[in-house]
Amino acid sequence: MEIKRVDSQKFAASFGRINVFNTADFAQLNAGKCSQVHYLLFIDTKVRLGMILGERDQRLCSPFSSPFGGFVYNEEPRLEVLREAVDLLAEYLNASDCCEMTVTLPPMVYAQSFMAKVVAMFGRSQFELSHTDLNYHYDLSRFDNCEDYLSRNARKNLNRAKTVPFEFVRLNARDDAQVARAYEVIKANRESRGYPLRMSLDDVLRTIRIIDADFFVLTLDGVDVAAAQVFHVADGIAQVVYWGDVPGYGEMRPMNMLSYCLFEHYRNNGIKVLDIGPSTEHGEPNYGLCEFKENLGCEISLKHTFTLSI
Fold first, then answer.
1. 1, 28, 25: which is closest to 13 by C-alpha?
2. Is residue 196 predicted with pLDDT exceeding 90?
3. What's the CA gap between 224 and 185, in Å, rounded?
4. In a 10 Å sphere around its CB, with 0-12 CB exposed, 13-18 middle and 19+ buried, how is residue 87 labelled?
5. What is the pLDDT of residues 155-170, one digit of tens each?
6. Is 126 helix (H, G, I), strand (E, B) or coil?
7. Can you state the percent helix, strand and coil of the chain, rounding each to 5?
8. pLDDT (mean) for 169-183
9. How far apart are CA 241 and CA 57, in angstroms?
């Protein structure tokens, strides 16, 4: 097997349905965030695997502007193919002008069997495990009995929220003004908590031209008190990119109501898993956020990052 560097069109033509963060379209949209993009195919008698890396500051990164990167494939490859592919990545770094490669894999829930094999093969290579993040997701088959999975405190908070006349509104993702409406709620939430907001409104608007996205607000007496931005990222999986409430309404538990409404909406629309995202940063937990998601009945899936330096 060999690695072949190709252009974005060749890479796109080599694969069918893959998660949106590992597509050539998404990489091209964000290509300005690195000095160059490396589109790699792993080929013997046919294309076995692919990977996209962004180069900046003498580092090759997969991803370079998304939650995760890693390998893509059409047919799940054999274990020995994965082992050879990981070794070829090390050779590719050695032959480049870069001194480090970092690969962050999708959470295990995206492809449990495949990701287990990939983690094992990275673990037997020159790469070192940099850190492991805790990624939370909600199995929507649980929703019909959702209260059975809530913590006692979360059940109390949801019951409190249900007494408040909230209105759950799905916005028109093709209307820039409505997208901005949800974005402003998220922005207010991040500013009040001192958290960074990595996507500007322009970033969001450009991204949803190539990714199916949903936007929601939770209103009370005509005021938007909470919002969510959700991407459809893989077959049967939607991801909460941002969600949050504005200051001053916490006692009414809008986030408990928003999460309940999102779970119900996506269950009713045939989604299997709602990815809520990580609650750790480089492996360091945000304990309050972890507790909140666990209290909602979310499950944990590991997200591994491997690094090789030369």
1. 25
2. no
3. 7
4. middle
5. 999 999 999 999 999 9
6. coil
7. 40, 30, 30
8. 98
9. 27
Mean pLDDT, rounded, of the chain:
96
Give, for 170, the enclosing helix (H) or strand (E): strand 167-170
Write down the pTM of the prediction.
0.94
Side-chain-side CA neighbours of residue 290 (13 Å): 13
The residue whose two tokens read 């119900």 is: 264
Contact 301, 137 (CB under 8 A): yes
Cα 32–chain centre separation:
20
* Inter-residue long-range contacts of 32-35, CB under 8 Å, 24+ positions, other chains counted: 33/64, 33/65, 34/61, 34/64, 34/65
Tell me the two tokens of residue 205. Answer: 């608007």
Distance of alpha carbon 299 from alpha carbon 276, whole angstroms: 10
pLDDT in tens, 72-126: 999 999 999 999 999 999 999 999 999 999 999 999 999 999 999 999 999 999 9
Give which of 57, 63, 61 is closest to 35, Cα–Cα.
57
* Closest residue by Cα to residue 102 from 61, 131, 63, 71: 61
Those residues whose C-beta lies under 8 Å from the C-beta of residue 57, and which sit 6 or more positions away, are none
Strand partners, 303: 133
- Predicted confidence at residue 263, as pLDDT, reads 98
If you average pLDDT over residues 18-36, what whole number do you get? 96
